[in-house]
Amino acid sequence: MRRCHFCYPNIGAFGAALLLSHAGFGQSAPLSIPNYHYTPPVPSMNMNMPPYGWGSRPESLAHRDGAGSYQLPDGSWHRAQRLVFNGEKLTVQDGATGKQRFTSETVRQLEVKQDTFLVVKDLPGRRVAPEKPDFLRSCVNRQGVRLLAMYYETGRPTYFLSRPNASMQLLPSGKAEFKTAMLAIVKDSPALTAKVASGEMGRDEAEQLIKDYADFLQGNALH
After folding, report:
1. Which residues of 108-136 are buried (b: 16+ CB within 10 A; e: fewer)?
2. What per-residue confidence (pLDDT) applies to 152?
3. What is the pTM of this model?
4. Residue 58, strand partner residues
5. Which of 42, 172, 210, 215 has the fewest CB atoms within 10 Å, counting from its CB?
6. Is the dihedral angle over the CA atoms 173, 32, 126, 9 positive or is it negative?
7. Low-confidence residues of the chain, pLDDT below 70?
8. Per residue, what are the HEC states of the chain?
9. How far is it, in rounded angstroms, from Cα 34 to Cα 89?
């Protein structure tokens, strides 16, 4: 099981290279907003089985299996009838090219089951630099606001947020710390501030909260 290598105080600055998008790789269209929701399998009566697992093969919340496309380091995109992604490695199973395997060092991003996963390095808040870049799911990408999620084999995702005129930040995992961070982010929106302050929207609603925040920014831009 992978261990989280992030701490929450003293979050470092985010380099411009992190803001990956189709435009950044020579693609004109923005990334679509994912709407795939993973539903863990129902645990069996065997209490020794790992959570989120199929028998002895636990699956990450990032696990995807289906048709999609992937981008290589040279910027080229390739379609495939079947991509199998386990959160750390991508296996392309295509009749024309046979089976191919990619890691975060040999692929830039992938799209499968209406989700986009980006390869990101130098994330803020990390205690120890990893040997390889990380795969992060793009949860929200609108109005200059991007919410990225890092998944582990079990447990909740770790969220990173980038927004206009601010460095990317690691969002706290604790309930109280998350509320404090979000109140600072949505302070210009009375409606969202009230929802966060009352506990109506918290870390479990992070994706919807950031989508609503992006909608707020869009609405203000139109006035």
Report:
1. bbbbbbebbbbbbbbbbbbeeeeeebbbb
2. 79
3. 0.72
4. 53
5. 42
6. negative
7. 1-59, 95-97, 154, 222-223
8. CCCCCECCCCCCCCCHHHCCCCHHHCCCCCCCCCCCCCCCCCCCCCCCCCCCEECCEECCCCCEEEEEEEECCCCCEEEEEEEEECCCCEEEEECCCEEEEECCCCCCEEEECCEEEEEECCCCCECCCCCCCEEEEEEEEECCEEEEEECCCCCCCEEEEEECCEEEEECCCCHHHHHHHHHHHCCCCHHHHHHHHHCCCCHHHHHHHHHHHHHHHHHHHCC
9. 20
Which amino acid is located at 156 in the chain?
R
* Residue closest to 214 by CA, chosen among 158, 142, 128: 142
Number of other CB atoms surrounding residue 61 within 10 Å: 19
**Amino acid code (one letter) for 148:** L
Q: Which two tokens stand for residue 195?
A: 């929802």
pLDDT of residue 3: 52
Cα Dmax for the chain: 58
pLDDT reported for residue 154: 66
- C-alpha span between 107 and 104 (Å, rounded): 6
Residue 169 makes CB contacts below 8 A (sequence gap 6+) with 11, 14, 124, 125, 160, 161, 162, 181
